[in-house]
Specification:
The structure holds two protein chains of two kinds. By secondary structure, chain A is mainly α. Chain A contains nine helices and no strands. The chains are: A mainly alpha, B alpha/beta.
């Protein structure tokens, strides 16, 4: 009985999410309005996240290089394999997926908190009273900006991770610059880049829509806004992990 | 004029409004009054369409808002200005941008015309020279006045105010009340104010609807309210010593 209740709860939540998504594309405002709002969101989402992404990914690449090096101490394994492993891990998982978790924590919680605050302070009602489709006006630019900016952030993150690995690998004497670059280029499959970019589009869509959904339907006060932000992050992360599995299953 | 006919609303098992019918006249400040939790704000939200009533209809000058299609609803909503309890100013926009917002979205006016209109409205509510201030930098009373300026900037035919005096000192409350009444007469609009503030009731209540436990119990003006003969209304009106002394009890 408990399982049935849980399934019904999940189905109801998913149904509301689908209805929410469909409400974004009806009663739209002018293209110019969305264009300006999307640019503002791109600055909020993209430019204001880039430093965090660079910092995290540089350290991530550095640590991955150290740990791979520590686990591949064998005369039978050439050292360029270290950077080869770092490349594969970075492009396939670390840059798109782990960064998505960070993105959900920074941007997703901000989206949910912002919309939740607008809801409890009646700013969303004010938009509705003016005859504006508040969901479309507030959320659609966030989704578009997210889908535009997240892939770019991941590309920057991947480059920084590889650079971080290079720095640590060379500075600690784990491998030479030539070995590192050779490993990066060795057996490169360009499809993995395509695969990673497909993942970034899917993750950006999931994070922005789930976070907006949680924030938009906040009811109550400051406590509920906090809860909505937390739920936005946790639900987004679960969705990312599920989507990551299914995309890997389908596309590789 | 706004007419409501048999408006009822329940949330789950809890019935909030029961069969409310009435008229709100043009060029007058119409008040919906009652104790906390009697459904005043829910009724207001049903009228402006933020909440869909379970039964009943709302007519804006004979246009059935409740059964209107999306186009018609949008059209009517563009004739509505609303002042929310907390002001509901957009945090990310300054005072000028807040007031200009409806013009940006709903009209094709030139930038110069929009600026003129914004300055006129800000001047009308007594707020000159605060254009660039953010909502977080102004007081509660000023937020309400900016809210009023935003509500009237698009020349609405209908003005709704949800507890305009909440959180304000008595002096500022009177200023806001007077402003609402002046604007109603000056622009000849239909104004509905939800309040439980007795100063407002006596000061600007040209037409008053009293709600009690989700039902309409009395209708009249501020001249009649002190001798309505309705016990529940008397209990609401004569709660403090000043009011009781007015009645002589």
């Amino acid at each position: 009985m408990g399982n049935i209740a849980f399934e019904l709860y999940c189905m109801k939540g998913f149904g509301r999410y689908v209805i929410f998504l469909s409400s974004l594309v009806v009663r739209r405002e002018t293209f110019k309005t969305y264009y300006n709002l999307t640019l503002e969101e791109c600055v909020q989402i993209g430019l204001k996240s880039i430093l965090l992404f660079m910092l995290v990914s540089t350290f991530m690449g550095a640590v991955t290089t150290l740990q791979t090096g520590a686990n591949l101490v064998s005369p039978f394994v050439p050292r360029f394999i270290i950077s080869n492993v770092v490349r594969e891990m970075t492009i396939l998982e670390l840059a798109p997926t782990i960064m998505a978790v960070i993105y959900a924590g920074k941007v997703g919680s901000s989206m949910a908190g912002g919309l939740g605050t607008m809801r409890i302070t009646e700013q969303i009602d004010a938009l509705e009273v003016m005859g504006i489709n508040s969901a479309s006006y507030l959320v659609l630019p966030k989704i578009v900006a997210s889908i535009l900016m997240y892939p770019l952030l991941v590309i920057v993150a991947a480059v920084c991770a590889l650079f971080g690995g290079y720095l640590v690998g060379v500075l600690t004497g784990l491998l030479t610059p030539t070995e590192y670059v050779y490993g990066i280029r060795y057996g490169f499959n360009p499809y993995f880049i395509t695969f990673a970019l497909i993942k970034t589009f899917v993750f950006a869509f999931l994070i922005s829509t789930i976070s907006s959904f949680k924030g938009y339907y906040t009811h109550g006060g400051a406590l509920e806004v906090g809860i909505a932000s937390t739920q936005a992050v946790t639900t987004s992360i679960i969705a990312i992990l599920l989507a990551d599995y299914f995309l890997a299953y389908l596309l590789i | 004029m706004i007419k409501i006919n048999n408006i009822s609303k329940s949330f789950g098992d809890k019935t909030v409004l029961t069969g409310i019918t009435g008229e709100f006249e043009k060029g007058k400040t119409n008040l919906i009054i009652g104790s906390s939790g009697t459904g005043k704000s829910v009724l207001l939200k049903c009228i402006v369409g933020l909440i869909q009533p379970d039964t009943g209809h709302v007519f804006f000058d004979l246009r059935n808002f409740t059964e209107a299609d999306k186009e018609m609803k949008s059209e009517i909503r563009r004739e509505i200005g609303m002042l929310f309890q907390g002001g509901a100013l957009f945090d990310s926009k300054n005072v000028e941008e807040n007031v200009m917002f409806p013009l940006n979205i709903l009209t094709r006016m030139s930038e110069a015309d929009k600026m003129d209109r914004v300055n006129f409205c800000l001047k009308r509510v007594g707020l000159e020279g605060v254009n660039k201030k953010m909502p977080s930098e102004i007081s509660g009373g000023m937020k309400k006045r900016v809210g009023i300026a935003r509500a009237i900037v698009n020349n609405p035919n209908y003005l709704f105010c949800d507890e305009p005096n909440s959180g304000l000192d008595p002096q500022t409350s009177v200023v806001i009340d007077d402003l609402i009444m002046e604007i109603t007469h000056e622009f000849d609009i239909t104004t509905i104010v939800v309040t439980h503030d007795m100063n407002s009731v006596l000061g600007i209540g040209e037409k008053i609807m009293f709600l009690y436990k989700g039902s309409k119990l009395w209708e009249g003006s501020n001249n009649d309210i002190t001798h309505s003969g309705v016990k529940e209304l008397d209990d609401f009106v004569f709660t403090n010593k000043v009011m009781r002394s007015l009645k002589g009890t």
